[in-house]
Amino acid sequence: MYIKQNQAEQCSITLDYPTMSLSRNQKATYCHGLLQLTIMKYILKITAVIAALILIFGTVAYFVVNSGDNIKPLNLLANSSLWSRHPTRQPILIKNVTIVDTKTGKLLQNMDILLADGEIRKISPTGQVAPPQHVQVVEASGKYVIPGLINMHMHVIDYPNPSENMALMLTNGITGFRQMSGSSELLKLRKEHGLSIQEQQPAMFGMPGSVLTPVNTHNIKAAQRNVRQQKAEGADFIKIGMLSPNIFFATLSEGKRIGIPVLGHVTADANMIAASDSGFRSMEHLGLNYGELTACSTEESDLRNMAPKEPAILHYLPAFMDKLSMKLLQKTLMNPAVGTSDKEYQRISRIVRTFSEAKARKNARRYLANGTWQCPTVSHLRQYQLAFLPEIKMEPGYSYDNAKREQKHKEVTEKFEKELTPERKEILINAYNLQLKLVKIYDTMGIKLLAGTDDQNGNALQLEFEEFAKAGLSPLHILQTATTNAAEFIGRTADMGTVEQNKIADLVLLDANPLEDIRHLRKINAVIRNGYFYSKEELADLKTKALKMLK
User: Fold this and answer.
1) Domains of the chain
2) With helix as H, strand as E and coil as C, how does 373-432 read?
3) 3-class SS at 504?
4) How confident is the model at residue 316 (pLDDT cuts 50, 70, 90)?
5) How far apart are CA 347 and CA 300, in angstroms?
6) Which of 64, 393, 442, 532 lies at a CB distance of 3.0 to 4.6 Å from 447, suitable for a disulfide?
7) d(CA 8, CA 113)
8) Considering only CA atoms, which of 306, 448, 437, 301 is closest in space to residue 360?
9) Coil, strand, or helix at residue 429?
């Protein structure tokens, strides 16, 4: 700081000891030091106030977040009246049905399927199965049967109303799901058989501990510690939410060292190919902030450097505020595109202009060689990136079933729409269409895709299928994203993913052939979960009751 001569004279008047003998330059130097000390005092005071507020706020947050309310919703799974009507199972004979072979796409017509004790006991041509006593006969002439659908990106048990949402999942043909967020408490509950997920509810296939963010993973040591702790607690995988590249790759390295899969979000400032080479198990949402499109650009390096970074302040929050920060982010997560800067829109436009199909294919070959899976969640991307389109507001899965959450959703959407110019809308539409093109390239190159909706009830799963169809995927490949591919990913091909003898009795009965038109997956006639039969009427009743409870 430079102080003029007259400022030095004014400063000297306030000094507590004689300075008359000092020269003007000496006085200026002295005052300069005095001002620096004064500024430092104020900075220290402000820092102390901020630290105190964080401590107070964090302490309150700790007790609020870690109160019994945090796990209370899980107790509803066992007690909800939604599930009280199925005290026992009985054998089921599905007669004269057409089986859709999800491996080959062949249709096996005029078949009988005998179910007992939650398993497929026998499959044979119609009339050759001797039905046991007290069997429930389901006449399925003209119907098509597929395996139960597995939604590979959901947030169910850590959100409110899991019981009601599981009921809605069944009405969408979902018999299993991958839980993409967790906590130490949830892992402990599962270990102690405290989740109370009943056998007629959709099955959960995998759960991590807390999603890794800058709040709970400040540095490399914290990343290594969290990976080891989550494995010890019984996590099935580590999910990265948002980490700077150096911490991201340290997490991958530690996961590989101790033998636990690492997957989730790759930020746009990270190297996608390096993540795949390092063993990243599955990439969700095609990367954050158009990360995988960035990797397909001829100007990838520059665009990575321009990509948004995580807010620095997150690194300074205490780790015990992690849960609260996630709760506070819920409204933001309703549409992550809100608040996108003009600089970022320019970057997205540049990503689209510099997209290289040859580079996309080259990347796909590397992903395939490394065994890196893709769960694009295009329905989710569509419904927030293009939320300004009138037709999207009418789509299944767009609106929240809970009135309060839907009101917040409307507020977020209105804010988003106010930020948009015609140019920005065009950029978003072009970028979304390019993401669909990338999905098609992945499919053509042989990468196995997973169907996921990033929601709590799976209402958008059929939309996910239909967006895959827009991308150019065949009905069989689309169906495989939620059946054979999902079963392979979770290591359960022996007992699910296809309609075969000795496999779990998770089935969906359809009124039309899904291989002719993927929209026929909406024409659900019945759902069988673990041998429990839900007719079309029972599914409608289940949906009505669940929605009433959610309101």
Assistant:
1) 149-493 (3.20.20.140)
2) EEECCHHHHHHHHCCCCHHHHHCCCCCCCCHHHHHHHHHHHHHHHHHCCHHHHHHHHHHH
3) strand
4) low
5) 11
6) 442
7) 96
8) 437
9) helix
